[in-house]
């Protein structure tokens, strides 16, 4: 049991990549290589040596702003005041580069996001905002 407590205490910044009904859908967004984006993010996490993690989610909610990626702060980032940051319209290589740079630098609470990435911040769905207040 103590082992899981230690793991939670040192959780890295995490990119949660939506791959539900709209996000990651090549029929809806045929000009985007969704598989390549996820592969690049995972390769970046591996190259960071555990500096950040990547996981996928079936649906995060704001489908009209697909592709959506949530950048969750690390334990240290959360202690420094960092909060989960929702990125919308995350489909091109420039956005992927910015996500990789921010996560590598530490993410929310540790490093400032690239200015162009900050332009893509979106409001989380109402349910996520309610969970964050608990």
Put simply, the count of helices is: 6
Tell me what portion of residues adopts beta-strand conformation: 15-25%
Tell me, what's the shape?
globular
Superfamily (CATH H level) name? Glutaredoxin
Q: Architecture, according to CATH?
A: 3-Layer(aba) Sandwich
Determine the fraction of residues in helical runs and give it as a percent range.
25-40%
CATH class: Alpha Beta
Strand order across the largest sheet: 2-1-3-4-5
Biggest sheet descriptor: 5 strands, mixed
Q: What separation lies between the terminal Cα atoms?
A: 24 Å
Number of strands: 5
Structure overview:
It is a single chain. It is built from six helices and five strands. It is of the alpha+beta class and 134 residues long. α2 (34-47) runs parallel beside α4. The protein starts with a helix and ends with a helix.
Reconstruct the topology from this structure:
Blueprint: H1 2-9, E1 13-18, H2 34-47, E2 52-57, E3 69-72, H3 75-79, E4 85-87, H4 93-105, H5 115-118, E5 121-122, H6 126-133
Parallel strand pairs: 1-2
Antiparallel strand pairs: 1-3, 3-4, 4-5
Helix pairs in contact: 2-4
């Amino acid at each position: 049991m103590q082992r899981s407590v230690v793991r939670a205490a040192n959780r890295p910044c995490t990119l949660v990549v939506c791959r539900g009904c709209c996000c990651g859908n090549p029929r809806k967004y045929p000009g985007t290589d969704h598989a390549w984006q996820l592969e690049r993010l995972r390769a970046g996490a591996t190259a960071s040596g555990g500096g950040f993690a990547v996981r996928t989610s079936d649906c995060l909610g704001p489908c009209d702003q697909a592709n959506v990626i949530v950048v969750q702060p690390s334990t240290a980032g959360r202690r420094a005041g960092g909060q989960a940051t929702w990125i919308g319209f995350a489909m091109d290589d420039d956005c992927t580069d910015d996500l990789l740079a921010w996560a590598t630098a530490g993410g929310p609470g540790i490093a400032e996001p690239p200015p162009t990435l900050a332009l893509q911040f979106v409001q989380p769905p109402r349910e996520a905002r309610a969970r964050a207040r608990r």
